[in-house]
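Hi support team,

I've been running sequence recovery on a batch of backbones for a student project. Most finish fine, but this one hangs at about 90% for roughly twenty minutes before it completes. I'm not sure whether the input is malformed or the queue is just slow. I've pasted the structure tokens below so you can try to reproduce it. Let me know if you need the job ID as well.

Thanks,
M.K.
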């Protein structure tokens, strides 16, 4: 089994998860990561822009569901079909699901002009809700690329599914290290967010 530089490697067999640590790092390290990454929206809402709408036309973007692989602030590296690794010296500032939800909300507002509300900002059910699954949000070793895949589901005020579509984007990664992974994932996430915003609009 080939070791990737500066990563945790995790094998995922059918019956159990086998945790294997690289010689370069350990789970009990108290050192902070060299990099803390955030998602920066390429499409931003202009300062002072007023958003208006009714509870019938308001739009809510829900936090996407994620698999156990993404239920961490670490950046996953898919090395084989059943093997996942994590970069040692890089983390997200918070859950990828939360970061992507904020990115989607900002991008949809900026590109469509829709009134996008957070959960709990409206006492009534909004006209539409964007839900979905964040399927991929990491690095693929085989293609040396950052891949973001989001399964979007649009529901109406009655909770009925009216549309569903998968969106994905990839960005090349020169080296599978923290220096390159964060920027590539940010670009891929923004590409997906733009696709979703145009689909919503």
């Amino acid at each position: 089994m080939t070791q990737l530089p500066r990563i945790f490697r995790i094998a995922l067999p059918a019956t159990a998860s086998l945790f294997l640590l690289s010689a370069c790092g350990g789970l009990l390290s108290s050192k902070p990561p060299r990099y803390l990454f955030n998602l920066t929206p390429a499409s931003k809402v202009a300062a002072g822009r007023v958003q208006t709408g009714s509870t019938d036309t308001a739009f809510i973007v829900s936090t996407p569901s994620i698999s156990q692989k993404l239920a961490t602030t670490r950046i996953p590296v898919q090395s084989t079909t059943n093997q996942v690794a994590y970069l040692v010296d890089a983390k997200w500032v918070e859950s990828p699901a939360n970061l992507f939800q904020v990115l989607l909300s900002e991008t949809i507002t900026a590109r469509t002009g829709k009134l996008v509300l957070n959960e709990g900002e409206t006492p009534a059910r909004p006209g539409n809700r964007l839900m979905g699954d964040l399927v991929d949000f990491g690095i693929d070793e085989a293609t040396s690329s950052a891949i973001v895949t989001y399964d979007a589901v649009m529901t109406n005020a009655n909770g009925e599914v009216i549309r569903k579509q998968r969106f994905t984007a990839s960005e090349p990664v020169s080296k599978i290290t923290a220096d390159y992974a964060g920027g590539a994932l940010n670009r891929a996430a923004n590409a997906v967010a733009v696709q979703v915003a145009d689909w919503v609009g």
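--
Follow-up from support: It reproduced on our side and the slowdown came from queue contention, not your input. Confidence is low (pLDDT under 50) at residues 1-5, 7-29. No action needed from you.
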